[in-house]
Amino acid sequence: MTERLPTSRPIGEADSDRLPPVRFAFDRHTWKEIAHLLANLPVALLGFTYVVTVLFTGFWLTVTVIGFPLLAAGLMGARQLGKLERARARALLGVRIAEPSPLPLRSSRSGFFAQLWMGIKDPVGWRTVLYDFIRLPWGVLTFAITLTSLFVLWPVLPFIARGLSNVDRVMVRGLLSPSDELERRIAELESDRGVVVDTAAADLRRIERDLHDGAQARLVNLAMGLGLAKEKLLEDPDTAAAMVAEAHGEVKLALQELRDLARGIHPAVLTDRGLDAALSSVASRCTVPVKVTADLPARPAAAIEGIAYFTVSELLQNISKHSGARTASVDVWRADDRLLIQVWDDGRGGARLDGGTGMRGLADRLGAVDGLFVIDSPPGGPTVVTAELPWRDRSLDAREPRGAEESRESRR
Hints:
Blueprint: H1 28-60, H2 67-92, H3 112-120, H4 123-151, H5 157-176, H6 181-232, H7 237-265, H8 268-273, H9 275-284, E1 290-295, H10 302-323, E2 328-335, E3 338-345, H11 357-367, E4 372-376, E5 383-390, H12 402-411
Parallel strand pairs: 1-2
Antiparallel strand pairs: 2-3, 3-5, 4-5
Helix pairs in contact: 1-2, 1-4, 1-5, 2-3, 2-4, 2-5, 4-5, 6-7, 6-11, 9-10, 10-11
């Protein structure tokens, strides 16, 4: 007694979509299917009991502080039950299904509640919960039919086992398979959004700190000095003139600090003349001689230009402070729909992503826009950092507000 199945499959078809090969009635594949069907009942009871006990307890306790953490932990446990079921289906049914992507890790600054919310809305965990609910009545049915067939319907048992096992295969593929690419991408974007928010918050704190400790303090001293000069203007003109001259110097220093701060937010040369000129400007301030080569037939989107500029700026600052290099170079070019940046120096090397927050921050910032960040820095050097960003046409940028255009014209 045999069954005839297709002997070929289309190119690219997943292994998990293939049916078992041609076989005799009571071969090892049939016995594996029978074992799987008989094990359905105890496994289904375990899963159903877990779901009811943990998840429903967590649901009813959501009015307390422990409810939501318990619910998130229950969904993480459901993920593990799904992993065991995929392993059982792989061993007994020949269904090979890739493991779903793990929950994306968020930075420690995003806090406990952000990670908790991500666990609660985990689609993989909820699909496993649905699978465990459905499995209990199905497990009872398949156990009863298979056990009866072993003693009553022996001649047709292989066909019964094949039919029931095919239903099992459909359920495993439908509910325990990895999410489609869109769902994976959504999870990645949610993680990247957390990185972007953290980076923006850190930048705002830096700007606030620079204003408070720099220009603001200098302007306060300037106001106090001018007030004293005003009081001495009539009774001691020479002292007042000296104080005004000192205040004039303070004004120049405050203006320079404000220019440096504005350059750190978004330099005017980048807006007006593009990435090539902006990188040449930042390279001229590096303590190491830097050769800049830019081969850009057009300008990418403003956001991509900004990320590229600050990436190179941060890397050149690291070269100035830590590398001990004698020379460095910056190369920027376009390859298909990607903007590529390579920064090289002949310093001492040893740079790593886990060596500090600077490099890790750059990698996170690029990752948030679908970019890449790779470091090749053996001890003794040289160091080569390669960054890759998506090339987005500048024509897709929103039109600048009229005030921004007027501001740029005034700078010219």
